[in-house]
Records
---
Amino acid sequence: MQWQGQPQPEERQTQGRRKTADGRTILHYVRAAWDFKGEYQDELDFKAGDIIAVTDTSDKDWWSGELLEASKRVPGKHLFPCNYTEPVQNRYEFE
């Protein structure tokens, strides 16, 4: 039985999860280990130490995400090589 106002299963999965500026669900965060300058229009440019909110990991080499620092974001740029990053253990250190 479904109670009125109770979230649907697909809503439960994303409840409490953060979203990017354009509404994509953030899976986790990574820190850039090295600088990267994209060669193509949709590749994210970043500097070592930048924090990236990861939104898609379906490709084993190239992930999708958004720079956490709003002033560094460029619309349409979201792909980055995941091997240039390292996992962030505690997201609260930068929020």
---
Amino acid sequence: MKITLDYHSSEPLCQQAVLQIKRLVVSQRLKPGEKLPSVRQLAKELRLNPTTTSRIFSQLAREGVVIQRPGLGVFVAEGPTPFSKDYIDGALDRQSLAYLVEGLRFGLSYEEIRAILDNQHTKLRKSMKS
């Protein structure tokens, strides 16, 4: 499981990790039923306190993304992803605005930004098929 945290971001590390795990589930890089690293293992990989890692898994479990099985570990939930349309729209609105602002800050035109998005969409679709 590849998660990269931005330790200089204003977004809390816990929320960064939750969002990235959700992306891995939605993109099917984490498959239903797949076991996630243990709390301690993920804490070590991300250089976080185990309590923070436990909070990450608890939030994901509350949202139905993962299932915590005492003594067995944490697993990606089976079935459709439990994200509501409002949640998805809100998350995409925030991220697309940040992406647009960043692109404009770099001096890119709308067309250049759109071409980058189209390229990423193509790559994601290909990775989901393999």
---
Amino acid sequence: MQLLQRWRSDFTLAYVLAHEVGHHVQNQLGIIKQTSELRKKLSVTDYNRVSVAKELQADYFAGLFAYYLKEKGYLEAGDIEEAMNVASTIGDDRIQEMARRNVYVDSFTHGSSEQIKEAFELGFKYHDINHSMKFFDDL
């Protein structure tokens, strides 16, 4: 809710909801189950990498959704920039910096601000499900 209070706009809400719907899509595809099973088998650090991939895929799906909003004529000037501004504030790196802690990449569970922005942009660019699997390539 803090995110929505800080970035009061219709597209911020759409972005956050699209990310969460992305998790629903992952559930329907069996990705949530597969990644959850890995939690028991991997170290915390290795599982964090899986978690980052899962979160970035949800951001990719949010970008895909934004593409379809654009195609339907629902995006307004500045909406994509708004999404990028939101993404730049919600990365694990930014959250750790705001908490005045050292940035520790191995503790990331959602990805850096730059990774989140890139995932959204890729979803907007490719707007297909095939490219969304790239986040799991290095695991």
---
Amino acid sequence: MSVLLALNGRDVSELLANDPDELERLLEEVRPLTLKVRPPADLRGVKLEGRDLRGAQLPGAVLQEGHLEGADLTGAQLQGAYLYRAQLQGACLHRAQLQGAYLGMAQLQGANFEEGGKLQGAVLCGAQLQAANLRLAQLEGADLRGAQLEGADLGGAQLQGADLHEAQLQGADLRWAQLEGANLTGANLAGANLEGADMRGAKFARAVLTGV
């Protein structure tokens, strides 16, 4: 039988299904922690605040409302993961693979995606991304409708075809961002820095551009 959840090389799939309390204890006590899952691993509500999760293999994992505040997810594989309302404030997501992940309503204030986080096609509608570092992030085709991006660093970000309808981008740094074909209808860009940004074909109907 294929491993559903491996903890530092140990198959703990049975605990995931039958003894979640024991699994929670192991997740709390084992250090360093190396996680590897195969879909459809259900880790909703998991508590891993501040943990070292570098290189974790969590593609397709259900991490709904998971507590990952301040966790180090450098290089983590989270393609297609379900992170609805997950708590990721201040998390380190350098080089994390989040293509197609669902991060709707996730708490990502101050999260660090430096070095080009891969978020192509990810859903971030309503996500809280205030002051997040998304410099050079790859967000092509991402759904950022209603996302809160006040003061976020999006310098050089790849946002071609992204949907930023009614996104809040006040004071955001969008210097040299690639916004070709992006939808910024109704977005608030007051005080944002768009120096050098490529906005060919972008839609700005009803957008607030005060001080831009």
